[in-house]
Description:
The structure holds two protein chains of two kinds.
Chain A: H1 3-25, H2 32-36, H3 39-72, H4 78-90, H5 93-104, H6 111-118, H7 126-151, H8 155-162, H9 167-195, H10 199-204, H11 215-225, H12 227-247, H13 249-252
Chain B: H1 10-33, E1 46-53, H2 57-70, E2 74-81, H3 83-91, E3 98-100, H4 104-112, E4 116-126, E5 128-132, E6 153-156, H5 161-172, E7 181-183, H6 186-194, E8 200-204, H7 205-210, E9 216-218, E10 228-235, H8 241-252, H9 254-262
Parallel strand pairs in B: 1-2, 1-3, 6-7, 6-8
Antiparallel strand pairs in B: 3-10, 4-10, 5-8, 5-9
Amino acid sequence: MPVPLLVPALIGLAFLLLPLIALLVRAPWRSLPEQLTSAEVWEALRLSLVCATAATGLSLVVGVPLAWLLARTRFPGRGLVRALVTLPLVLPPVVGGVALLLAFGRNGVIGQWLDSWFGITLPFTTTGVVLAETFVAMPFLVISVEGTLRAADPRYEEAATTLGASRFTAFRRVTLPLIAPGIAAGAVLAWARALGEFGATITFAGNFPGRTQTMPLAVYLALQNDPAAAIALSLVLLAVSIAVLAALRDRWMTAS
Amino acid sequence: MTRSAHRPRRTLQVAGASAAALLTLSACSSSGTGSDKGSSPAKPSGTVTVFAAASLKESFEALGKTFEKQHPGTKVTFNFGGSDTLAASITSGAPADVFAAASPKTMATVTDQQDAAGTPVTFVRNRLEIATPPGNPDHISSLKDLTKPGLKVVLCDKTVPCGAAAQKALDAGGLTLTPVSYEQDVKSALTKVELKEADAAVVYRTDVRAAGDKVAGVDFPESAQAVNDYPIALLENAPNPKAAKAFVALVRSTEGRKALSGAGFLKP
């Protein structure tokens, strides 16, 4: 094995793994049961799971059709639209949060009408958390589903339409079952991203226990005055991430 | 963001222990000779890194410019944030020369870890005020008005000095207040009012003044029960202790005091 490749490879591996090992080494194992049974932790965990799941659901409802539009239709400016869809992937989440405030805030471009017509305000609400997470997580789903759609053979759909199915029926009965694994993988990715969302959430939805304080926010604020609690919370998120990886192992780990 | 690892710094500490010891010695000896007279022979040079409470932003930036003018060849770089966040990053090894906190409690985080060189000194005090959108559209005139139902109020998180002070003021008034959010530092609480997302925030008087006409300030008597002392300290592992000492001296000088009271800070 060539040493010039092996050494940096091992350094890279160690760099990725050491922080996680450090988390385990320094974990307050003795006080862990106590830390993890506190009401605040469960409140934050429950809120995180509910919001991440809702954000994934919302992403599925609008993201799968969006992926279909990008993969199966031709319209001018499609490349640009695809680039715009992936923008939240590379945008710093805090910037996303500021942008959401300016759009959907009480005084925002759209938010001011939501407020004056329907009395709906989104910042500082759980719905605001879901929107912030959807904004950041949906691109993962769209990209994943679009890739699967491109790889899927369109002739099955064409055959269905020549046999008299409408395009929507063909999508529902032929395309969807065909790309189901891609949708599932995209949904898991989006869910994991939503679960870890920090910047957009704290900027757009603020921080209030039980309403908008998700796990990452709780970790961040706990680190200031109670590092042991922060480590305990981090362990929970680490465990969830490992579970997600395990769920995806057939897709990625056996790819080699 | 200053959310780096909190603990894994043992190796660094071990490696830097001898250097730290040397720094302590030099810091002690030089502080003995000329703290008031400024008789240190060598001129300050290089970069001074100052970690300061978010509420000090405007006045410290101005003082930084003054410092660079007074001592050509120096550069002052700032890290402004919630005092608790700054304290946490200092105790986990962030390279800083000076720490100016918005409360003795957050400073204690640093001194408890023996990360400060010498005893911190209170250099200003700050009082709370209610910030509302311009023109005070909800006619808020007291702390009690903030408890009105339907009013969106943001407070600083209780781990941050301005949040702790707000809680103290509320307790003094016998009031309970449920905000819509506990913000991570005073500036983000103020921003929520500037953007008109919140109807009011409890922030420092200096923040209201620094925001100019973007917010209106409402004074309230309970704030007298919750005045914050701001301590400043030279740090143990300061990479540039000489310039750091000169910067602290400027902050505590007549000129520094004038700039700070101009920003609305109270005398220590």
